[in-house]
Amino acid sequence: MALKTPPLFFTLSLLSLLSLAFFYWNSSTNSAPPSNHRITLSSRQESINVYMSPLPRSLNYGLLEKYWALNSDSRLGSEVDREIRKTLLPEDFGKHLPYPENPIIKQYSAEYWILGDLLAPEEVKRESFARRIFDYRKADVIFVPFFATLSAELQLVINKSVFRKRVEENEDYKRQRMVIDTVKRSEAWQKSGGRDHVFVLTDPVAMWHVKDEIAPAVLLVVDFGGWYRLDSKSSSENSSGSMIHHTQVSLLKDVIVPYSFLLPKLHISENQKRPTLLYFKGAKHRHRGGLVREKLWDLLIDEPGVIIEEGFPNATGKEQSIKGMRTSEFCLHPAGDTPTSCRLFDAIQSLCIPVIVSDNIELPFEGMVDYSEFSVFVAVSDALRPNWLVGHLRNYSDKQKDRYRKNMVKVQQIFEYENGFPGGVGPAPVDGAVNHIWRKVHEKLPMIKEAIVRERRKPPGASVPLRCHCV
Ligand SMILES: *[C@@H]1O[C@H](CO)[C@@H](O)[C@H](O)[C@H]1NC(C)=O
Ligand SMILES: *[C@@H]1O[C@H](CO)[C@@H](O)[C@H](O)[C@H]1NC(C)=O
Ligand SMILES: *[C@@H]1O[C@H](CO)[C@@H](O)[C@H](O)[C@H]1NC(C)=O
Ligand SMILES: *[C@@H]1O[C@H](CO)[C@@H](O)[C@H](O)[C@H]1NC(C)=O
Ligand SMILES: *[C@@H]1O[C@H](CO)[C@@H](O)[C@H](O)[C@H]1NC(C)=O
Predict the structure, then answer these.
(1) For residue 288, how many other CB atoms are within 10 A of its CB?
(2) 238 CA to middle of ligand 3, Å?
(3) What's the chain's Rg over C-alpha atoms?
């Protein structure tokens, strides 16, 4: 079902990207720069050269236009976007559109901020780690500017029933095919087999239909939750019990990126007494893998000092979370339907010490951030012992907790995506998430180069079984 993409389309999309960059430049000269650009990266000598695949605007900002033009979205959490829709002006379409505020979508906004940083004119982003290159042969990696999360979420709004089907009515599927067919036809992909291509797949259902085709590439994901299950299903007959075969994702080639946090940052100077010991808000029942959560819920619900509550993804729920996370010493982070969630990053912004009960969790920027300096890691088996968890947490002295909180202050900015510029086009906060993501990708360059060389020497017709990367 490959869609024909005339070369004119590419030219137009490039032009529209350029004009977007121009708009940004003009508007930014009139407004004060955001305040979070204090600390400078040690030097700009170290950077990553990024070429952008020429995709039509309909696959990124065009999707935002589609989203904001919707007139019915009755899904949970969409109230706030209904209000924003009323305030958008016709001239906003085509330039300064925000990313959705619906928490279900906003938590996955990495795609918007990464592209916005790449599109900012070079002269204003001297401190961004990614440097945009216009000749793919001089680039370290090829970034594919597809808003895969927004594409999937739009389809779920417009017609959920065809989401998993490869049919004409599934616009998300058609867009996935268009992206894949376009990049696979390019010289850049043919030279590398896609290993130096970078896709943002924050939503676990993003690019669902073409996961196997993009498997060689560098995938930016919030965790491997969905992938493990698919993988272990396909190899279950021969699998040795709990062994997970990851043939499509691996910490070696992929990068774990943070969710976008949804709660406002609490400054340490605003920190007040925290009368509650442990706080958790969320759904008790999750469709997959939430067994631990349910058992913990039953164990903790009647414990003194513990607040566990169901929440809604609307303004009431947000107020509830802000209050809960700012008045509690510890915030519980059990495995839900995915190993991670934006709750962890909300806890950090609220200076609530995370208690992570999830035996094999992948976290963003490990090696750059040591989570054990400000989080409590608890084995699932211990957490499920009656009264154990509360006793364990009560054993932390005030001094220890203060030290954890001070350490947390140092990492708050690392998870910041927003750059404060209209339309999201502008340099990313210097010490924020986008620059850390590119640093992580940069660390993988030697391995990517090696893999490309290995791939190239293979004689035609050679068949190599999919391998498990055991890390
Ligand atoms: C750029 O800004 C100037 C001064 O604020 C304004 O007069 C001009 O119309 C703007 N140009 C564009 C293309 O927005
Ligand atoms: C969704 O697509 C299916 C298959 O084409 C169609 O039968 C159904 O009416 C569509 N639903 C909506 C709400 O458009
Ligand atoms: C399991 O292993 C056997 C022999 O090694 C092989 O023939 C079969 O295709 C494998 N099945 C799956 C589902 O991988
Ligand atoms: C949020 O949702 C809950 C449950 O549907 C409802 O009771 C509450 O009034 C809602 N709050 C707002 C601000 O819409
Ligand atoms: C808490 O500390 C006491 C005294 O040091 C110790 O006996 C107990 O095992 C600790 N409890 C937990 C759950 O770590």
Answers:
(1) 11
(2) 6
(3) 22
The residues, ordered by sequence, that sit 6+ positions from 380 with a Cβ below 8 Å of its Cβ are: 292, 335, 357, 358, 359
How confident is the model over 395-425, as pLDDT tens digits? 999 999 999 999 999 999 999 999 999 899 9
Residue ranges with strand state E in 186-234: 197-200, 218-221
CA of 239 to the centre of ligand 3 (A): 10
CATH fold label, 268-415: Rossmann fold (3.40.50)
Whole-number mean pLDDT of the chain? Answer: 85
pLDDT of residue 126: 80
Which pTM does this prediction carry?
Answer: 0.83
Q: At what angle do helices 171-185 and 148-158 cross, to 10 degrees?
A: 150
Q: Domain map of the chain by residue range? A: 7-21+43-259+420-453, 268-415
pLDDT band at 288 (very low <50, low <70, confident <90, very high): low
Which residues, in sequence order, are CB contacts of 131 under 8 Å at separation 6+? 47, 48, 49, 50, 122
What is the number of the ligand closest to the CA of 78? 4
Q: Which ligand is nearest to the CA of 316?
A: 4
Residue 395: CB within 6 Å of ligand 5?
yes
141-161 residue pLDDT tens: 999 999 999 999 999 999 999
